[in-house]
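hey all, quick one before standup. I had two proteins in the batch that finished overnight and I want to keep them in one place so we stop losing track of which output belongs to which input. First protein below, input sequence then structure tokens straight from the run.
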Amino acid sequence: MDKRARSVSTPWLVAAAAIAAAATFFVMNGQVRSANERADLLQQTVTSTERSLLGQTTYVRYLQEGKKQLTAQQRFLAATVRQPYAVTQVIDQSVLGFHSTGTVAIWYSVEYSFGYELTADRYDVTSDRDGIRITVGKPRLVATPAVSDLRYKVLSGGMLTDEKAAALKLYAEASKRAAERGKQLATEPAIMALCEKQLTTFLRAFLLKQPNVTTVPHIAVVYR
């Protein structure tokens, strides 16, 4: 090749090399930018996952404070049940050989309050892989049953019977009967389930209000 040919091809070679270098730069720059974007996205995903996991486990920090709140609020956590009653009594009275019979009926309502013994040393709040566990004694009456709406009616009167006195006696016995009935009700599954709901709903609501807590697992009530 002569000198003139070499002098003509040299600029083209330089230009081609420059174009190739520029293309390589842009390709590499694009790859770096793409890699950085993927790294940012991965970091965001990791951060989001970490926050999610943190929100799902942070509740453990507040279990003991939750226990204190349960103890402090136990009087307001009672499950209240109201039941109506009707009692009929036949009255027999004999005076000097004369016999008389009367019948009286009374109606009344009883309000029962059931709850747990939540003194701090009488129950525990713990966490395991299955969730939160409240270990406590079984529900009991937490207040004297309240008898109300007392009324009576003489269904049949006798010449010698005092139906009003009989009704008053039945009134007096109503509180005693209510206390006995309350002890029986405390062991019934429906009452126990109602008490459990009161307890777990309060604790769940308290934990969800705490900082960074996004999830509270299943809360189970376990009886000693």
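OK second protein, same deal, sequence then tokens:
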Amino acid sequence: MEEREQAPKTARHVEPRREAAKPPEELAAPSPSGEARGKPVASLNDILLRAERAYAAYLEAQKDVAQAYRESELEADGFYKDSERQARDARDAAMRQALKVRDEVIDKAAKARDGEISRAEQAYKSALEQAEKAFQETDLKARTAFDDSVRQALKAFEDSLAQAAKKREATVEQAWGVYTKTAS
């Protein structure tokens, strides 16, 4: 692209109108009014004037090119700043999204942990209740078995005492019976 195409339309410069340069043959040709031959038609002042105009147009064109470069540089700076801002905004949005996702994952993990702790506590309470119930049932059975054993032992003891007392009584009666028979 040429520099003029890059510059905004407001910065385009319309070149001043240049007079068409006359070919050297015309400069050297005699004037129709019959002036002396070999004398140039255009005066040195006219040539200097045209040269000054051309130089002024050249300087103006240089200014236009410099202005176009400055505008292009400013436009590139603006584009860079816009790109930088967009990249920063995208980075910030990605970071916010990542933080949001992280917080959601942490919340889900915390809820899952709390749920697992609650289930574990419930299972512990249930196991504790079952263990307590089993202990109470076993304790009751052991006490009942003990009481039954004690009752049976007491009954056996009482039965043994009763039998011993009967034997004693029978032996005493027999001995008295023998004594009374022998004493009589």
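Flagging for whoever picks this up: The longest helix spans residues 44-183. Confidence is low (pLDDT under 50) at residues 1-36.
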